[in-house]
Automatic annotation (TrEMBL):
Superkingdom: Bacteria
PANTHER family noted in UniProt: OS07G0260300 PROTEIN, THIOREDOXIN-DEPENDENT PEROXIREDOXIN
Gene3D superfamilies: Glutaredoxin (3.40.30.10)
Thioredoxin domain sequence ranges: 9-160
UniProt organism field: Chitinimonas arctica
Protein name: Thioredoxin family protein
InterPro entries per UniProt: AhpC/TSA, PRX-like1, Thioredoxin-like_sf, Thioredoxin_domain
CDD domains noted in UniProt: PRX_like1
Lineage start: Bacteria, Pseudomonadati, Pseudomonadota, Betaproteobacteria, Neisseriales
């Protein structure tokens, strides 16, 4: 399982619109996911140990961010051919099991992940109210294993974006499993 780091934040880059099916049976686009003060677009999956180590905290963090006017959405772009745990039926069960209060979307064509430049799971993109990128960093220092008492980097960055419109000047890239891209046909 290859681990990758997300690239540096391209501050000011526009959010990319999407229209994808969700585990709740609805379809979501960017406008439906955003909050009044911004949106957090997360690329995650079910099988990745980096995501597994933070999934409960991620659900709680997103719930907290709602009170700051930040909308949250998770997108799974992995090809489930070699990782059946990442298929849509498993996504539905995963979202229920871990109390995802945010939409969990399937990017079956992988076009959305490519448009965002996502490279790993988790890969976080934090946008302000103008839908300009302000944060592309990690959740916290946990990695594959929870680090007790770790600074809540993602939460603090998104809270700052909600309050000031700008992200922190220092951002540590996210580390995670490489997105499982489809073989070109």
């Amino acid at each position: 399982m290859a681990s990758l780091s997300s690239p540096r934040c391209n501050v000011g880059q526009d959010a990319v619109d999407f229209d994808l099916p969700a585990t709740d049976g609805s379809r979501y686009d960017l406008a439906r996911c955003r909050g009044t003060n911004g949106v957090l677009v997360m690329f995650i999956c079910n099988h990745c140990p980096y995501v597994k180590s933070i999934r409960e905290q991620l659900a709680e963090t997103c719930k907290e961010l709602e009170s700051y006017g930040i909308g949250c959405v998770a997108i799974n772009s992995n090809d489930p051919t070699d990782y059946p745990e990442d298929d849509f039926d498993h996504m539905k069960a995963y979202a229920r099991a871990y109390g995802f209060g945010f939409p969990y979307l399937l990017d079956e064509t992988q076009a959305v992940a490519r448009a965002y430049g996502a490279v790993c799971t988790p890969d976080f993109f934090g946008y302000n109210s103008d839908l300009k990128l302000q944060y592309r960093g990690r959740f916290d220092a946990s990695g594959r294993h929870v680090v007790l008492g770790a600074k809540r980097e993602l939460f603090e960055a998104m809270k700052q974006i909600a309050m000031l419109g700008d992200g922190p000047p220092v951002q540590t890239p996210s580390l995670g499993c490489a997105i499982k891209w489809r073989e070109p046909s």
